[in-house]
Amino acid sequence: MKTTKTLRNILRYQIPFILSSGLPIFTLPIFTKYLSLNDYGFIALANIYGILVAGVCNLGLLSSFERNFFESEDISKKISLLWTCILTVFSILTLVFFSTYLFQKQISNSIFTVTLPSYLLLFSLLNYGVKSLIQYFSIYFKNSEDSYNYVRITVFESILSSGLALYFVVYESLGIIGYIFGQAMGASVVFFFFVISFIFKKQISFNMIQLKSLLKLGIPLIPRIFFGVINGQFDRYMIGILANLGSLGLYDIAQKISSASFNFILSLEKVYSPKIFKLYFKAKSEFTQKSGILLIPFFYVTILFCLLVGLFSEELLFILTTSEFHSAYPIIIPLVMIYGIYFFGTTGQLLLAKKVKLISRISFAALFLNIIFNYPMIKYYGAIGASWATFFSGLIISLITFYFSQKHAKINYPNHFIWTVLLFLVSLMLNSLLFKYNFSYSFRLIFKLLNVLAYLLLCYKMNIFVLISK
């Protein structure tokens, strides 16, 4: 049976998703034997620094590169755009990396209430900095609808990063330093491989005029990146401050599992995002009506996967981790719930409408809400409080983002989207209550299976599986 290009791309993008999400989860039985809850807490704190600094150093160029990619059909201009971004960000990251090397102890003491192991901040920055550079190649392949090369770059990175992390932790006994160093080395090897490959095949160029255009769109996004990263890491930071490293480690494990649902959304976004962007630029008058229809199969598959992760992560924890990590299950459910809702934030409507200042204001509002919800919830309920605070603040900001997205680049979503989201949220909330009040496992398992069966029946009635195959 022949498959369409869209279906082939969907299937191909599941390969890197399975590896990038699956490897961190399925290597947990090994890593949790060598790393404690406190170790995961240290890793989470170091990653806050790496993600924040690497994000700011990109100067919003990731978003402006993705948008400006479609403004010209000239391949040479697109390649020049790619190299202009990479060379600019690489130069900035190099300067910041050496600054971190010189002042890592002072940075650790001033930001965190605990002294992190030597070189942990440095390797975390190296890891996330190189990963951010790889994203430019990924966006180039994704927007070119070259799923083969996109899969190649992601598969190589996932396998090398996980493999080297295992080697340094298990065989070299380097502990948490080996864990982050291995990931950083894996990403670095992949980055330099594609740099050399592009130089030989497509040459290299730098265009100052393009850089000015990119920065004009990207610099207003820096506050959004800054506040967005802080917003995304604030819960971890506050758990480390208000609770303890053990709670932070538990929360980190919960996020590793729950983030599989968001990574799945991103894997599908690689397929529908270029289509939405092309539709906007080539048939703007038809964008409102056609974009909603285009998103139907992707939406239903997304919610199905999020539902499965939310329902059955309890069993996953029991199989893959030691007993001290099993209490992460109640933390996972609200995180999966909000990740499912984040589907509506992946359409890029505000970016298409060039509302970059509005994007930054919404990011600041998200941080403000996160602080208001997280501080009291973490103080009184620890890691579980953080997950529910993330859900409620995320829900409010998602509604605000949805309102402005519809105002500036409207998508006609079918009404049944709303009822499906409500079914998804109610199912997981009821499952959370059944777990909290100690209903028997057999009863909860039957409840889970009935939820999945009901949703599959809904997908069948909506002809979702037929739409996917087209």
Structural class: mainly alpha
Tally of helical segments = 18
Which sheet architecture does the biggest sheet show? none
* Termini Cα gap: 12 Å
Got a strand count?
0
**Range of helix content:** over 70%
- General form: globular
Any low-confidence stretches, pLDDT <50, length ≥5? Answer: none
Task: Provide mean pLDDT, rounded.
Answer: 81
Name the helix and strand elements from N-terminus to C-terminus, one letter apiece: HHHHHHHHHHHHHHHHHH
β-sheet strand percentage: under 5%
Q: Nearest-angstrom radius of gyration?
A: 22 Å
Helix and strand topology:
Layout: H1 5-26, H2 28-34, H3 37-57, H4 61-68, H5 75-111, H6 120-143, H7 147-171, H8 175-202, H9 208-218, H10 222-242, H11 245-282, H12 287-320, H13 329-341, H14 349-352, H15 356-408, H16 416-436, H17 441-461, H18 464-469
How would you summarize what this structure contains?
The protein is mainly α and 470 residues long. It has 18 helices and no strands.
